[in-house]
Amino acid sequence: MLRFTPILLAIIYAIVMYRFSVWRTQKELSAKSTELADPRLKKLTDRLAASLEVARIPVYIYEIDPVNGLAAPDGRIFITRGFYRKFQNGEVTGEELSSVIAHELGHVALGHARRRMIDFSGQNALRTALMMVLGRFIPFIGPWIAGALTSLLAARLSRQDEYEADAYAAALLTKAGIGVSAQKSLFNKLDALTENRAGVAPAWLMSHPKTQERIAALERLESDWGV
Q: How do strand 69-71 and strand 33-35 relate by DSSP bridges?
């Protein structure tokens, strides 16, 4: 029985962490966001909504400065204040911002938003279990190995989600008559917009695919669709 104690503790830890993470995330987003009210963007989101055959797509402004978009576990779509400010300043077009919204809708439709929260909790539990087990057999470096392994797993899962959400967004943008070009042009701006220096890191260590690889994947889709 003692042999299984780390695993049982990890499972209990994962369940508790999942519940707590969902509660904390929803509380944080609700406290720091308001629904977006921009007539220029509404015309574009209305086109997305029509393509999805829904009445509307509510988008919220999350009051933080880093440029980002995100999908909450409960299905809400958020654009950060920093990202919206780039649009207001003319650094990002409405079509480009709508491609972000379409991408986040992809995360919701494909179940990524909710699964990521579960994965996050599960990965923490796996890390805890591995640390306890490896720590017994490989003192000092065992916990480091456990952390590295779970980080690599998380990065790979996240990159796959991004490709899938990109493909969903491309299909939705094409159906809505907005097109994939806005998606690709935004990718070319992302490093500058986010002041990202991650491009020097190996792709397999990054939680998002490299920009050029994402663009290449979209171009393959366009070729397959004959766009």
A: unpaired
